[in-house]
Amino acid sequence: MEFTWPWEYDFPPFFTLQPNLDTQRKQLEAWRKLVLDYCRHNKIFVLDVQESISLFQNKAIDRQLSTEGINQVLESLLEYNQIEWCDKAKKQCLVYWKNPQEWGNLIYRYASDKGMTNTVCTFYELTAGDDVQNEEFAGMDQSLLVKALKTLEATNKAEIIMFGGNEGVKFF
Amino acid sequence: MRKRPGIGAIHKQRVEQERFRGKATELQDNVFEQMTSQMEKFRTNLETFASKHRNEIKKNPAFRKQFQDMCASIGVDPLASSKGFWSELLGVGDFYYEIAVQVIEVCLATSPRNGGLITLGELRQRLIKARGKAQHHQEISNDDIIRAIKKLKVLGPGFSIVSLKGTQDTSDILIRSIPGELSADHTEVLKAAEAQSFTSVKALKSTLNWDDVRCLQILNELLRDGVAWVDEQSPEKMYWFPSFFKPLMSEDEIALPPPN
C-alpha cells in the first residue's frame, strides 16, 4: 500500500524552518510524525541521515528542508525519545515508531502465544525465521532487538543467552 | 374687537384638550390592543404552521431558513432559549446548540494547523462528516452554522465571523475561533491570498496599492498569529495560508471526539 503523505508535505512553507516559534513547534511536530509514520510504513528500523534525504524533500513542489532544518527535526525527535543515535558521528539512528519497551512486550506476547516460554530461541529465529514473517518485528535490526529484550530482562520476563557463538534469548 | 380669552375659555380649552388627549390615548390604547391581538394571531398562526411543517423545518435547510426569516420579521426568535415552546415544538434550540458544540470541536481540532481561521466551507464539510455517522441525518446549511455561531458569540468573545467580500454570500466567510479581531488590513490580505492560498509583498503592493512597510507589517502580524507560514525557497518570500490550502481542507485525519 502506498504511503499517504500528510498535507504538510505538499505545503511549500513546510520546508522552510518557520521563524515564528509557535508555528515552528507545530512544524517540527508534523515532521516528527512524518518521520515516524514513514518509517513505520516502510519498516525502517534504522535511518541513515544521508540516505534519507528524499524524506526531507518534495521534488514535485521543488522544495527541500535545509541541513539546519533537518538537524532541528532530528534534535526534536531525540528530545521526544523517538530516535536514538547509533554512532557518535550521528550518521545513523534507530527510529522508535515503537519504543524498545513496546517492542519487548510485543515480542513477549508472541513468544508466550507460541508456547515458546522456557525454551531458547535464537535472534535469527526471532527476526528472520519463517514463523515470524507476518510479525511487525520481522527484519528488526539486531541492536534494537537487544534493547527490546533488555527491557524484558529488567522485568524478569526473559534472559539473553550466548550459546555456541549464537545469540539467543530465553523467555519465562 | 377680539374677545380676550377669559379663565373660563382657557378652562374650556383645557377640558377640550384633555378630551382630545384622552381620545388620543384611548385611540392609542385601541390601536395597541389591536396590534397586540394581531401579533398574537401571527404568533398562533406561526405556531400552527411550525407544528404542521415541523418535519420539513427539521429536514430542509432552505425551508428552515425561510421559516427563521418569517419569525424574525414578527420578532419571534425560536432559538431564544433551549427551553420553552419553540424548542419543544421543533427541538430547534437543541439543534443549534448541538451544531454550536460541534463547531467548537472542529475549530479546536483544526486550529493548530490553520491558526484558528477556517473557511465556512471546510467547517461545514467537517461538521457533516462528523454528524453523518451518528445523528438522524439532518442536513445542515451554511445558514444554520452562522446562526449557531452567532449564538456562540452571545456567550462571550472567542468566535467571530469574518466576511471577505462584505456580502451575505456565505462562500467567502471565515470563522475565527481565536479571540482578537482581525483588522481591515488583515482582511484585505486574506482576500488577496484566498484564491491561491498564498501571496507576497509584491502581489499585495500591486493589488492593494500599499507600500512595502505596510505589506510587511500586516504579513508579519499574520505570521505571528499562526495564520500564515513563510516559504523562503521561491525568488520572493511567499506567505501561505493553511486556511485556504486545499489539501489540508480535504484531509481526513483530523480526529474529532466521538459524538455521544
UniProtKB/TrEMBL annotation, chain A:
GO terms for cellular component: ESCRT II complex. SUPFAM superfamilies: Winged helix' DNA-binding domain. Keywords: Protein transport, Transport. One of its GO terms (biological process) is macroautophagy. It comes from Daphnia pulex. Belongs to the VPS25 family. This is Vacuolar protein-sorting-associated protein 25. Coiled coil: none annotated. It comes from the Eukaryota.
TrEMBL record, chain B:
The keyword Ribosomal protein does not apply. GO terms for biological process: establishment of protein localization to organelle; intracellular protein transport; multivesicular body sorting pathway; ubiquitin-dependent protein catabolic process; vacuolar transport. Gene3D superfamilies: 6.10.140.180, Winged helix-like DNA-binding domain superfamily/Winged helix DNA-binding domain. It is a peripheral membrane protein. One of its GO terms (cellular component) is ESCRT II complex. Keywords: Cytoplasm, Endosome, Membrane, Protein transport, Transport. Component of the endosomal sorting complex required for transport II (ESCRT-II). This is Vacuolar-sorting protein SNF8. It comes from Daphnia pulex (Water flea). The gene is EOG090X09XM.
